[in-house]
Amino acid sequence: MRYADIHTHILFGVDDGPSDIEEMRKLIELSYEDGARILCATPHMRPEFWGDPSEAVRRAFAEASSYVQQTFPDMQLFLGSEIRYHQNCLQWIQEGRCSSINGGRYILLEFSDQVIPEQITDACRRVLQKVIYR
């Protein structure tokens, strides 16, 4: 079976992902063996907790992309962000500090487990109005 995994923390040296290049490569290999042919690296975008990961993300994604192209030519690797909803996240998205899935119209938005469903609906509406449909 072939599938797409659109939420992975495979980039080394970023948030809670692998600690080094070899561990990252092993995770990519295991994903391939499990049938993944599309992987989307979605490092956390939560500056108040993880800091600004932009440079580490660029460096690790370049390394991962090169490895995938050389080792698994039938696999595609995309970049996105796991964006923690926060009052500043709309600004982060608009400034390009967060990545949409493969530069497209889709984002991965995460919420605190303390948020009630009505707040999630309202937050998604704000994101759509301010960011997606601008």
Structure characteristics:
alpha/beta, 3-stranded parallel sheet, globular, 5 helices, 18% strand, 134 residues
What report would you give on this structure?
Helix content is 43%, strand content 18%. It contains 5 helices and 6 strands. A 3-stranded parallel β-sheet has the order 1-2-4, covered by helices on one side. A 3-stranded parallel β-sheet has the order 3-5-6, with no helix packed on it. It is globular. The termini are far apart.
Ends: how far apart? 38 Å
Would you report the number of β strands? Answer: 6
| Rg for CA atoms | 15 Å
Structural class: alpha/beta
* Beta-strand percent range: 15-25%
SS summary, helix count: 5
Helix content: 40-55%
| Largest sheet entry | 3 strands, parallel
Q: SSE order, as H and E?
A: EHEEHHEEHEH
Shape: globular
Identify the strand order in the major beta sheet: 1-2-4
Quaternary:
single chain
Mean pLDDT: 89
Low-confidence stretches: none
SSE blueprint and pairings:
Blueprint: E1 3-8, H1 21-33, E2 36-41, E3 44-45, H2 47-50, H3 54-71, E4 76-79, E5 82-84, H4 89-94, E6 108-110, H5 117-132
Parallel strand pairs: 1-2, 2-4, 3-5, 5-6
